[in-house]
Amino acid sequence: MGNYERILIVDGDPQFVEALRFMLLSKSYAVATASSKALAQEIVGSQAVNAVVLGTIAPRGDAFAFHQWLKQGAKTRGVPLMVVDSPPEKQLLSGWRRDEGLQMEAEDYLRKPIEPAMLTLRLEKLLQESVEMIKVLIVDDHTVVREGLSAVLTLQKDMQVVGEAVDGQEAVRKTVELKPDVVLMDIVMPVMSGLEATKHIASTCPQTRVLVLTQFDDKENVASARQVGAWGFIPKRAASAMLLDGIRAVFKGQHFHEALAVCA
Q: At what angle do helices 62-72 and 37-46 cross, to 10 degrees?
């Protein structure tokens, strides 16, 4: 298969873990395993995972607690989650409680016993259906602009607004904190300008790409934005579709300039 996606298996049953691990490795997946909530959180915090198989761990309730932690995190909420609950005869001792089940946000739910081959097929389908989320930080000193941009981006299945900033200084701080994929950056702002903030971000957070968004679209601003490390430039007058194209382009490593209607 040659996909090399990383799967995290969280379960306290060594036999279940080893059988599933062996099957996933045979399909060319990278596999990490954890037998506790603390270890699972440590793994997710230190390395990227493409999906999580969450089985049963002790004490009862820790599986649900890890599920909540995963779905509430800005960087982890988009990770596909498959819950594998206890068999019916062990439900009262180690399975998910009824109230936990009602709050479950998993993309798939199964019960033990289940063959590793069948579970793997379900997991492969889940990965194929999952969409890579683009994490976006919106930076503008006008509330109405931030709200408008957020409303447009929230409707996109492949975009997630992870935060907002009202000036360049806050933008730099939140980029370091939230690690967005793309920053929508206004130019004229108090405290620190968008161009200065872009320069800081480009030098300290090279994994984040800045897309400058401003009402001024003259050549001087375009040149300045490029000089400080911006990946793209879009006037605020641009249509929503063009804005979305710009975000997706710079996320993929393409320079984008709406005024010229080109991606390079």
A: 20
**Domains of the chain, residue spans:** 6-129, 134-263
Cα dihedral sign for 101, 54, 135, 192?
Answer: positive
- Of residues 178, 232, 229, 233, the one with CA closest to residue 203: 229
CA dihedral 223, 147, 208, 78 (to 10 degrees): -150
Percent with pLDDT over 90 in the chain: 65
pTM equals: 0.55
Taking the CB of residue 260, how many other CB atoms lie within 10 A of it?
10
CATH architecture observed for domain 6-129? 3-Layer(aba) Sandwich (3.40)
Please indicate whether the domains covering 6-129 and 134-263 agree at the CATH topology level: yes
Per-residue pLDDT, averaged over 243-260, amounts to 82
**Domain 134-263 belongs to what topology?**
Rossmann fold (3.40.50)
Phi, psi of 51 (to 5 degrees): -165, 155
d(CA 58, CA 36): 7
